[in-house]
Each structure stands twice: as structure tokens, then as C-alpha cells.
Protein 1
Amino acid sequence: MTLTDPASAPRPLPNGYRQSIGNAITIFLGFSLTFLRGWVFEAPGDWTPRSVAAALVLTIPIFMEIHALFRSLRLADDDAAEYVKTVRWFIASVIAMVFAILLSAVILSGAIEPGVAPSPHSPRIER
């Protein structure tokens, strides 16, 4: 007879936790893909190196969200320790998406164009 340490035994998640994280990830993933589509295909103006960089930065959180979704669908995610890692990946992807959206907004507004000092009376600069 082998005795195992109860502290090292996997702790199962309460009912509903895995389904909830899966829903949250897919909702944010849908928003992220929709925002990327709007940025790439529907934003006004010409492409600049900055707008290309913003589009590339927008893809990083999307890949992070896909990774979090993959983790949430694994059977190993029933263990509480693995679930915590998945939640951390998801939170990191949301923070990265907020940063990417703010960067995209700054680039679209033209606030960081080199050699152009924005003034309150200057018109909006199209990209």
C-alpha cells in the first residue's frame, strides 16, 4: 500500500470554472479579431511603417489568447495549478490587447508623427 501526500495530489476545479474561462477567452478573442479586421481593412488612410507596426503588435495578444484557449481546453487544466497558469495567460493577453489598442489609437490620431508638433487648431492627420 502506497500513501501519497495529499498536498501533491491534483486538486480538481469546482464545477463551471473551465466553461467560464473558455467563454471569457472566446469573447475576448472575437473582439480582438474584429478589432484587427477593422484596423487592417477598414481604417482610413494609407499604410505607414507605424501602422504596420501597430497591426503586428495587435497580433501578439491574439496569439496569447489562442494559447490561453488551447490551455483551457486541455484535460490537464482540470488541475487547479494548471488552471491558475491558464488564467494568468488570459490576463496577460488582455493587458497586452489594451496596450496594443492604445498604441493603435495613438498611431491613428497622428500624435507621434515625426517633425509634426500637434496643436489644438491643427486638423486630424489621416494615416
Protein 2
Amino acid sequence: MHLLTRSSLDDLNARMAEPLPVSRFRPNIVVDDLGGPYAEDGLLLAEIGTARLAHCKPAIRCAVTLVDQDKGAKTGKEPLRTLAAYRRHPGGGVAFGTKLSVTRPGAVAVGDTVTCGEAPPGGAPRASPSKNPVSR
């Protein structure tokens, strides 16, 4: 699953001449905010609706983000050029959003609360509720 926050998209759009819609990045789940732009980078565990998700890897962006879905055509070098200026990943490429694996299947719906958690070394997962609902 690809999760992206609106706060991250807002930050990216503030850096670009023309803002992009969230659909350009094809996320499965859009959350308003998790504590500021790019907070999803540190998301280890999440419960949304009845599903449980765990961090898998950063969402490394590809050339498909250069295509305007409405026009069906490549539109230039954005957003990859802007992302490359500040979101380079040490393993290569540019990261925008996070990939999560499903550890407990369940239903996810618009408006569900996101409960974020962390897994301490050798311990059971801890969760803390977020006041930020799923927005897509």
C-alpha cells in the first residue's frame, strides 16, 4: 500500500511553479497529516479502520509521475526535478510517501482514524492515536 500525507503534497507544491494533484502520485491511502510534512517517512506501524499496516520501504518515485493523467502525456521534468533537490534517497532515486505491507487485512474507509505505532526492539508494538483521519 502506498500512503501519502496531504501535508507532504502541500510542501512539495509550495516548492513548484504549478501545483500537482495527489492523483499524480497514485497513493492508495491519503492522510491529512501525521505530524508535519514527510512524517510518513517514520511511520512503522499503522492501524486504519480494521486493517494493520507495517512499514515496508520508502516510495521511490518513477517517471510515471511526469505524466498528466488528464492529458495522457508527459509534462516535463516535474515533480522529479523538485523532489531531487531535497528528497534524494541514499539507496537511489527520490522518495515521496511510504510503502506499507498489510499485516492484518481489514476495511479502510474515508474518515477512519489512523493509529500510529512503533515496534521497540524486542517488544510488542505500541500505538498512539492520531487525530488525522484518512482523507481518501
